[in-house]
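Good morning,

Attaching, inline, the backbone tokens for the sequence recovery test we're adding to the shared suite. The designed sequence is right after.
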């Protein structure tokens, strides 16, 4: 935890040292400076928020008692070649952020999200400042089910104390959150051959791990045991352990979706479906 805190501090310091000479409309502006300017704009628009630059095109924002990741990759992608759009692109996302902070958690809006150990440790460090920790439970391997609030313009992660205020018994929380997820989930689509990828709108793919019926049906069409992985927040892959082509394809996809250049990584660990539950799966790589 201490090492992660040092990384965050160093990242914030590095961004703070960026030159201030390039305005938002500059044709020479890069993603790092865009991030720094966006952080200043969030601080100006939300003076009561705590804003930290945690990486390129990524901010941590605590506002209205809620902690949120503030991603700028789409804002940068749509405006990097059109400087006139940059200010509006950032302002639109700040407006969405301000809107989500005004919505209070309710039983009907609790949803389950999948995160890894690193994410959970970082969130707990930030939430500790207000006497709480991320509300969640271990799923399998390095993956956690963390509970969040689905809001009109985004997803807000809540602390255990905030969730306790809803008076949902711990034994009922996962079922309630999954039922809410089903209500907001876009259409699930399957892509590929031998190794498959499921899509569901770009925000909830990892959470598909929690839908038993999806995996009961998936298991009917594969060879061997069903294995799955969520290398990034919008990619979930699966295949069968006895499918040589499927395992090779999934290994290649996992390798392609690894490393520091990948946006929004989740986990490189594989899971296997046994007895209706997920367990860690040790992948044997061919030499």
């Amino acid at each position: 935890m201490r090492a992660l805190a040092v990384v965050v501090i160093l990242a914030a310091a590095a961004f703070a040292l960026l030159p201030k000479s390039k305005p938002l409309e500059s044709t020479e502006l890069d993603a790092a400076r865009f991030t720094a300017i966006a952080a200043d704009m969030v601080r100006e628009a939300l003076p009561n928020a705590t804003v930290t630059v945690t990486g390129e095109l990524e901010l941590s924002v605590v506002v209205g008692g809620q902690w949120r990741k503030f991603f700028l990759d789409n804002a940068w992608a749509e405006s990097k070649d059109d400087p006139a759009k940059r200010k509006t692109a950032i302002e639109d996302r700040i407006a969405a952020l301000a809107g989500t902070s005004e919505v209070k958690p309710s039983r009907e809006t609790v949803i389950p999200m999948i995160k890894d150990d690193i994410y959970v440790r970082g969130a707990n460090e930030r939430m500790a400042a207000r006497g709480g920790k991320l509300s969640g439970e271990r799923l399998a391997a390095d993956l956690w089910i963390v509970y969040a609030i689905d809001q009109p313009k985004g997803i807000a992660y809540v602390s255990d104390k905030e969730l306790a205020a809803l008076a949902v018994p711990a034994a009922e929380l996962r079922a309630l959150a999954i039922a809410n997820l089903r209500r907001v989930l876009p259409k699930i689509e399957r892509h590929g051959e031998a190794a498959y990828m499921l899509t569901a709108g770009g925000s909830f793919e990892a959470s598909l791990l929690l839908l038993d019926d999806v995996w009961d049906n998936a298991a009917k069409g594969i060879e061997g045991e069903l294995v799955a992985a969520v290398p990034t927040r919008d990619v979930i892959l699966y295949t069968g352990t006895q499918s040589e082509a499927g395992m090779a394809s999934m290994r290649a996809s996992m390798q392609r979706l690894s490393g520091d250049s990948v946006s929004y990584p989740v986990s490189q660990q594989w899971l296997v479906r046994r007895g209706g539950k997920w367990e860690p799966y040790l992948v044997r790589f061919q030499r």
